[in-house]
């Protein structure tokens, strides 16, 4: 069985790098449209004024903005564009886009307005990344996957994992990650009695420093995987790389001690804690005569924060807690994060769930409940929509935050574009809005301004047009800035149901680029490659059969599920191709999947694009896994290549499963299956309301 390798169509500087392709070792030729004109404007994030004399670089070509902040650059045509903006007296910015996101019109690209933040004497920029491990599957890949880090080329291979995101890290006055792994160059044989233990070569610490990281939080549940031997090697490796650290040590006093530094003339203390002791013995936390991570119980967090704050130091607390893969922090985690700010902390950053959680303000200071993964080898789909978080502090007061959406693809962080960017920003708006935090759009990133009273005004209704053969319409993510979808009706007055998106890369715009390859699909009986003959956007998936039947299977099952009906839909092109959806479930309490079941079949009737939507009934119990595959064959064995685009898996709300609904995740509106076809859909919104009055 062959893993999916999607071929690269054009290399644009460092943005798209040559790599393995499905059908050959050569990328297809550049398209006829070799040069396009990119234009946009750069403004001040502080006052909105246009910025003159700023350098904008796109595709290796640069220009300076005029007196009105405008620029125009002739650049090579490409499916991906990276935009670098830099100017004297301002922090530089990096943005990435798929071509279709830039509104291509007659060879012209409109780049959204970019905001630059002014440098000031008392202002500091911090950049925070999520969980980092860098071992396990990087060197010992799963069957059929390529190895990313080789012994003979370790330094170069490890640096390649972070080179795309390094400019964002290096732009910071201080950059931080959660280093969730033991580091050692020797074979470690004495491990804690836990289900998951792992370690990586100390070169990982050197790579982090090379990429621009300054501090590694150690208060987590893997720093003590190999007990004192592993802890000694880890702390030595981090120190040798020049990284600051806190959160672990050979006794409690050393583990809870802060890392102290000065940034922009302000004295800062960094504290790092894990939220639980662990069940294994010896456990994972430091004690008076035992090594481990710093246990962040209520009393310890308050004690250590107060000690630093009373010494006139600004404080960052990084807390490793809450449940894995959960969209919300636990009440215990939230209580401890609030307590840290009450005790004097100026910024609180959460880790451990491996997925994104939302933001909240407390006493005017920002809490980020979970940053998700940054450099991690989890193949779980839900962990791959992530972010870097940029936070500007004016002295010790929060000034501004910027969400840089990232796609943890091929086990490495790269800029998220198209559907993956939408998934990141939609999720963060859905989880932050109920806590009073508004996230605005800025050139593909999300902006959080200083804490303000929530806007109680009802957002305006939105009218969405329905395609003639569509089964659903999409509520744009930008509409969630002010509120959440509360009701949808068609032009006949019929009330419609909402659904959320479970498959974020179904547009095939995030399967390649930046030398990272999606591992979501396998093929048996054929090969898959990107194709520019897309129904929407820039890419579709072209499947070339090598047998009379081709199976395209989802490698890893979806996990973030509801007890609700599901629709699997998409668009097919390939006259005569018969496509059958098959699916299987694993229900709560069961150890194995069900047998594969047929979900529906479509035969492409002509040479054009044809929509399909297969409805899967609500399961009898709560599902924990949902897996799909497509089987293509050709009556009469007249096999031929075919195209797929805009695949989607939608979980629909219904009365029984409505109690767990997160309203901000409502992306789709389901069109009526009977009666007159609607021409338009009206979506009514409710404003976000603060969950409490904690401030």
What would you note in describing this structure?
The protein has 695 residues and is mainly beta. The protein folds into 3 domains: 84 residues, Immunoglobulin-like (Sandwich), CATH 2.60.40; 266 residues, 4-Layer Sandwich (Purple Acid Phosphatase, chain A, domain 2); 152 residues, Jelly Rolls. Helices cover 12% and strands 37% of the residues. The protein has 8 helices and 46 strands. Strands 10, 11, 14, 15, 24, 25, 26, 27, 28 and 29 form a 10-stranded mixed sheet that branches. Helix 1 crosses helix 3 and helix 6 packs parallel to helix 7. Keywords: Signal. This is Capsule synthesis protein CapA domain-containing protein. Pfam families: CarboxypepD_reg, PGA_cap.
Would you spell out the secondary-structure blueprint of this structure?
Layout: E1 2-3, E2 35-44, E3 55-58, E4 61-64, E5 70-76, E6 80-86, E7 93-98, E8 108-110, E9 114-116, E10 123-132, H1 154-162, H2 166-170, E11 174-179, E12 182-183, E13 199-200, H3 203-211, E14 215-217, H4 227-240, E15 244-246, E16 248-249, H5 252-256, E17 259-263, E18 266-274, E19 292-293, H6 298-309, E20 314-320, H7 331-342, E21 347-351, E22 359-362, E23 365-368, E24 373-375, E25 385-394, E26 397-409, E27 412-415, H8 418-432, E28 440-442, E29 445-449, E30 462-465, E31 472-474, E32 483-490, E33 495-496, E34 498-501, E35 521-524, E36 526-531, E37 540-545, E38 549-554, E39 566-573, E40 578-587, E41 597-603, E42 609-616, E43 623-633, E44 642-652, E45 668-670, E46 680-687
Parallel strand pairs: 2-8, 2-9, 10-11, 10-24, 11-14, 12-13, 14-15, 18-20, 20-21, 21-23
Antiparallel strand pairs: 1-35, 2-5, 3-4, 3-6, 6-7, 10-25, 16-19, 17-18, 22-23, 25-26, 26-27, 26-29, 28-29, 30-46, 31-45, 32-33, 32-46, 34-44, 34-45, 35-38, 36-37, 37-44, 38-43, 39-42, 39-44, 40-41, 40-43
Helix pairs in contact: 1-3, 6-7
């Amino acid at each position: 069985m062959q893993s999916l390798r999607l071929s690269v169509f054009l290399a644009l500087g460092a943005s798209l790098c040559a790599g393995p392709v499905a059908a050959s070792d050569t990328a297809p030729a550049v398209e006829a449209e070799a040069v396009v004109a990119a234009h946009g404007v750069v403004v001040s994030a502080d006052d909105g004024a246009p910025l003159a004399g700023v350098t904008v670089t796109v595709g290796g070509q640069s220009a300076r903005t005029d007196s009105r902040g405008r620029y125009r650059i002739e650049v090579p045509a490409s499916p991906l564009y990276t935009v670098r903006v830099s100017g004297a007296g301002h922090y530089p910015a990096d943005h990435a886009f798929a071509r279709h996101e830039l509104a291509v019109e007659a060879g012209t690209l409109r780049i959204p307005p970019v905001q630059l933040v002014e440098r000031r004497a008392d202002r500091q920029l911090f950049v925070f990344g999520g969980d980092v491990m860098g071992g396990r599957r990087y060197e010992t890949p799963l069957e059929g996957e390529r190895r990313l880090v080789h012994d003979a080329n370790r330094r170069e291979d490890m640096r390649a994992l972070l080179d795309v995101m390094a400019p964002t890290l290096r732009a910071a006055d201080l950059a931080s990650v959660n280093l969730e792994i033991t580091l050692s160059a020797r074979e470690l044989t004495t491990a804690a009695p836990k289900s998951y233990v792992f370690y990586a070569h100390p070169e990982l610490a050197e790579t982090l420093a090379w990429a621009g990281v300054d501090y590694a939080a150690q208060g987590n549940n893997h720093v003590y995987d190999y007990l004192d031997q592993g802890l000694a090697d880890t702390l030595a490796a981090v120190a040798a790389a020049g990284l600051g650290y806190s959160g672990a040590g050979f006794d409690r006093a050393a583990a809870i001690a802060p890392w102290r530094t000065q940034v922009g003339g302000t004295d800062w203390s960094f504290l790092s804690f894990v939220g639980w002791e662990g069940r294994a013995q010896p456990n994972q936390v430091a004690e008076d005569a035992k090594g481990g991570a710093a246990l962040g119980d209520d009393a310890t967090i308050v004690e250590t924060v107060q000690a630093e704050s009373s010494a006139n130091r600004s404080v960052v607390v990084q807390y490793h807690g809450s449940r894995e893969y959960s969209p919300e922090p636990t009440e215990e985690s939230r209580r401890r994060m609030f307590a840290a700010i009450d005790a004097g902390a100026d910024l609180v950053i959460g880790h451990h769930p491996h997925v994104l959680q939302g933001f909240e303000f407390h006493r005017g200071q920002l809490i980020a409940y979970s940053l998700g993964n940054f450099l991690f080898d989890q193949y779980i789909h839900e962990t791959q929509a992530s972010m870097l978080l940029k936070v500007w502090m004016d002295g010790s007061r929060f000034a501004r935050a910027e969400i840089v959406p990232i796609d943890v693809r091929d086990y490495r962080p790269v800029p998220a574009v198209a559907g993956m960017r939408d998934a990141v920003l939609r999720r963060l708006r859905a989880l932050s809005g109920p806590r009073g935090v508004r996230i605005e759009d800025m050139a593909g990133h999300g902006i959080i301004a200083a804490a303000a009273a929530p806007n109680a005004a009802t957002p305006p209704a939105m009218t969405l047009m329905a395609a003639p053969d569509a089964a659903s319409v999409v509520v744009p993510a930008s509409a969630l800035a002010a509120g959440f979808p509360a009701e949808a009706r068609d032009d006949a007055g019929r009330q419609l149901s909402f659904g959320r998106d479970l498959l974020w890369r179904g547009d095939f715009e995030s399967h390649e680029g930046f030398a990272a390859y999606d591992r979501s699909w396998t093929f048996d009986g054929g090969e898959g490659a990107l194709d520019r003959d897309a129904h929407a956007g820039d890419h579709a998936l072209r499947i070339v059969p090598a047998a009379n039947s081709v199976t395209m299977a989802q490698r890893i099952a979806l996990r973030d599920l509801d007890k609700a009906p599901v629709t699997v839909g998409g668009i097919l092109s390939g006259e005569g191709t018969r496509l059958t959806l098959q699916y299987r479930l694993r229900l709560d309490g069961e150890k194995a999947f069900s047998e594969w079941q047929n979900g529906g079949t479509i035969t492409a009737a002509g040479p054009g694009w044809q929509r399909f939507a297969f409805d899967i009934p609500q399961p009898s119990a709560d599902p924990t896994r949902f897996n799909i595959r497509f089987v293509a064959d050709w009556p009469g064995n007249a096999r031929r290549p075919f195209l797929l685009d805009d695949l989607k898996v939608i979980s629909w709300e219904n009365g029984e499963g409505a109690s767990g609904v997160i309203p901000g995740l409502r992306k789709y509106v389901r069109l009526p299956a009977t009666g007159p076809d609607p021409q338009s859909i009206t979506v009514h919104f409710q404003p976000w309301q603060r969950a409490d009055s904690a401030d």
